[in-house]
Amino acid sequence: MSFDRFRFQKEVEILLGCHQVEKWLSYSQKFQSLEVNMSNIQTLKSSLHEDGLDNLYKGLYSISNGFFNIYHGYYSWSVVKFYYAVFYLLRCFFSANDIGFLKSKGIFTLKLEQGEKPIRRDNFQYNGETIKGDHKTTIVTYEREFKDQDILLSNHIGDLTVYDWLMEIRNQVNYRERAFKEPELGYFPISLFNKSTLKESIEIYFKDQVPIYCFNEDHACVAAPIKVLQFVSHLFYTNTGLRLSEERIKVIEKMLEPTGINEIPYIKNILYPDQYAGY
Questions:
Q1: Would residue 276 count as lying in a domain?
Q2: 110 with 32: CB under 8 angstroms?
Q3: Residues 28, 98, 145, 243, CA torsion sign
Q4: What distances in angstroms separate CA 222 from CA 34, 160, 166, 273, one per listed residue?
Q5: Structural domain tally of the chain?
Q6: What is the 3-state secondary structure (H, E, C) of the chain?
Q7: What is the pTM of this model?
Q8: Strand 125-126 to strand 129-130: parallel, antiparallel, or no bridges (unpaired)?
Q9: How does pLDDT run across 1-12, given as a tens digit for each residue?
Q10: Is residue 40 domain-resident?
Q11: Residue 105 forms part of a structural domain
């Protein structure tokens, strides 16, 4: 099955002389000796930032689709979509900071600064757990490297960080519960998430600067992804200068139009950051 692979991974493979992906594992030693220098840094940054823009779109799309589903009374799968949105947005955050994820007999990061080399990020013990897989590796790497830069890591939900809590509720809905809850309402307070109140509730989450809702179990599933979307999109736009294409913006606007959420200024700021500054 053919698919569009991440540009950053492909550029590194080409840089090391690998032009056939099925032979990549044989380049493991060469990969671990890779060093960022002035001759390769700009090409690598360009590919990493383009990947970051794709991840930003995937995150925004997933959150918007979650809103759309909630508006129409479908809640269970929205939980999964909100979690995935956060995963995509964390990957975008790394791109905005010139850090890319790479695979070569493990999961590595490579910071695009002169002299940097790949760092292994998976297959180690952290808080009594073996870290493996794209999702857990991304979250743990983020929590270890950027704890002091994210207000969502300043508190917990129970014993879990916000990001671990979002992963746990995703796992509960997706794997552990024997059925989705529909037609009953689940995971969200019904007074906040119906057709007449959804837009107002979402706008409250966007306005929440403390942010108190991100650490409340009744709200965090929606409030936390919104907050991640806000700060990651702003950082990415500022650091890279890239913007969503008109075609992608139209997809999001069309999806959100029935809900009215597309009219919220904070959403407009994410779609049109040069026109709706200050939100």
A1: no
A2: no
A3: negative
A4: 40, 17, 10, 22
A5: 1
A6: CCCCCCHHHHHHHHHCCCCCHHHHHHHHHHHHCCCCCCCCHHHHHHHHHHHHHHHHHHHHHHHHHHHHHHHCCCCHHHHHHHHHHHHHHHHHHHHHCCEEEEECCCEEEEECCCCCCCEECCCCEECCEECCCHHHHHHHHHHHHCHHHCHHHCCCECCECHHHHHHHHHHHHHHHCCCCCCCCCCCCCCCCCCCCCHHHHHHHHHHCCCCCHHHCCCCHHHHHHHHHHHHHHHHHHHHHCCCCCHHHHHHHHHHHHHHCHHHCHHHHHHHCCCCCCCC
A7: 0.95
A8: antiparallel
A9: 556 899 999 999
A10: yes
A11: yes
Tokens representing 167? Answer: 């992963």
What tokens were used for 255?
């999806």
Domain extent for 221: 7-271
The pLDDT tens digits for 166-190 are 999 999 988 988 888 877 777 777 7
* Residue 1 falls inside a structural domain: no
Tokens representing 112 are 């695009």
